[in-house]
Structure formats: C-alpha cells, structure tokens
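Q: I'm writing up a methods section and want to include an example of the input and output format. Could you take the sequence below and give the corresponding predicted structure tokens, formatted cleanly so I can copy it straight into the document?
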Amino acid sequence: MPAFPALFAPLSVLLLLLTGMTPLGLSGDIRFLPPGLVLAAIYFWSVRDARSMPYWLIFLFGLAVDIVSYGPLGYWAVVYVTGIYVARWLPGPAEESHGAIRGWLGMAVVATITSVVAWLLASGYFMQAIPAAPFVKSTAALIILYPFLAWALSVVARATQERRALNLERRG
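A: Here is the clean output for your methods example:
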C-alpha cells in the first residue's frame, strides 16, 4: 500500500490546524471554532477508519493546537482524546450505514461532550466557573458546519480509494 494515500487523513487534519492558526478575526463568542474544526476532521477519519487516527496521533494534534494557540499544554490533547474515545463507543460506523445524518448526529454528541469537557478543564484551570457562552456558540457553529466539512473530506476519501484501486489494478 502506498504511503501517501495513508497520509491523507493526518494531512487534512494538519491543514485544518494550520488554517486555524491564521488570524480569522473571529468574535470572542466563537473563538473555539478552529480547534473544533480540527476535532471534526479527527472525528470524520476516526469513525471512517480508526487505524487512520490512533490515539497517540490525536494526542499530538491536541498538543499542536495547544502550542499554536498559546494555551495550557495538554488542554486540547485531553479534549480531543476524550471526544474520540466517546465517538468510538457510539453504536455503529457513523459514516456508513445511515449516511450523513448518522454521522452528523454522532458529531453533535461528540461536540457537545467535548465542549463540556473543555469548559470543565478551563474552569478548573482558572479555578472558577468561566462563561459557557463561547463554548456553546462554538459548538453550535461546529454542528452546523460539520456536514460541509464531512462532504469535503469524503471527496478526499473517495479520491484516495479510487487512486488506491487504480494502483492495485495496475499491479495485478
């Protein structure tokens, strides 16, 4: 199996991570949307093929988000690993049997749980309950945007599968 198609999943997450580093001018209420988009891409690939997103890689993506956002080291790493752990316990492969709706609902559950975990960790870090509005609004925006991100990533996934099939036909 060629190495490059296997790298599409991590590279797409890395691309979203780098995009989130750019000064997007987001209001304070949706400031958690870029890290949420990284979570959404990790979720998409994790439910599609868990081998493409092992926990150690998810943890490294979280550390990278912590570094580029100047946040507490380990914050997003714990949030991402927790979210994907929950996603992998949801019933059935979310992106296959019932299509996009099931994947969207799965992402809504994961986004909500990770938002609560993120709020709890942030409140613990600051040793006081912080406003939940930015977490709630970013989660709502992420749930609304997920179908579009999933569509884009599924185009990449289909192209990767077609390329892999062509390579196998040429060899066989």
